Amino acid sequence: MTTDQATPALDVAGLTHTAGSRRVLDDCSFAVPAGSVTALVGRNGAGKSTLLRTAVGLLRPDRGAVRVFGKPAGDEALPRIGYVGQQSPLYPMLTVAQTLTLGGRLNAHWDAGYARRLTGDAGLLPTTRVGSLTAGRRSRLALVMALAKRPDLLVLDEPLAPLDPVARAEVTGALMAGVAERGTTVMLSSHVVADIDGICDHVVVLAEGRVRLAAEVEQALTSHLVAVGASRALTDLDGGKVIEVRAAGSEATALIRSVEPVAATGLAWHRPTLEELILGYLRTPATQPERKVTAA
Amino acid sequence: MGLVVVVIFRIDRRTGTAVYVQLVQQVRQAVRMGRLAPGDQLPTAREVAEYAGINPNTVLRAYRELEVAGLVEPRQGSGTFVREHLTPLPDNVGELRHELAAWATRATAAGLDVSDMQALLAEVAAVTTPTPEGLRHDN
Question: What is the ipTM of this complex?
Answer without folding.
Answer: 0.73
